[in-house]
Amino acid sequence: MSVEILDGATIVNFMEDEEAFNVQICDRFAHLDSDHDGRLSYGEMLKELQCLRVFETHFGVDVETDPDELVRVYDSLFAQFDHDLDGTVDLEEFKSETKLMMLAMANGMGFLPVQMVLEEDSFLKKAAEWESAKLVA
């Protein structure tokens, strides 16, 4: 994990760079697709869904959550990605839903800088790194 400063514009600008965003989407999808069939099963997506950190934490410490509630939340999130409801997520579904989630985060953050603790391989971390690289260039 690392601490980064970013705002909604960082996320939006990263997604608008189609090449950079697509590279990250394809890399992440390939990493998750452990059986290399071009589709993500629920099991393959579960770790990614858990990284979304949708549950309350207190100063970074996870709060104990009811296991049944966890199952319902992750089932619902998976269904959000599985647009055609075939029980798997293809690359286009993954890209489309990831983009929608990132836009929602950008809209929620607004355009004032926020300091955040980010997972090393998260899309938000990739957006912050992309912005830093643009500033250096």
From TrEMBL:
<dbReference type="InterPro" id="IPR011992">
    <property type="entry name" value="EF-hand-dom_pair"/>
</dbReference>
<dbReference type="InterPro" id="IPR002048">
    <property type="entry name" value="EF_hand_dom"/>
</dbReference>
<dbReference type="Pfam" id="PF13499">
    <property type="entry name" value="EF-hand_7"/>
</dbReference>
<protein>
    <submittedName>
        <fullName>CALCIUM-BINDING EF-HAND FAMILY PROTEIN-RELATED</fullName>
    </submittedName>
</protein>
<dbReference type="InterPro" id="IPR018247">
    <property type="entry name" value="EF_Hand_1_Ca_BS"/>
</dbReference>
<keyword id="KW-0106">Calcium</keyword>
<feature type="domain" description="EF-hand">
    <location>
        <begin position="69"/>
        <end position="104"/>
    </location>
</feature>
<dbReference type="GO" id="GO:0005509">
    <property type="term" value="F:calcium ion binding"/>
</dbReference>
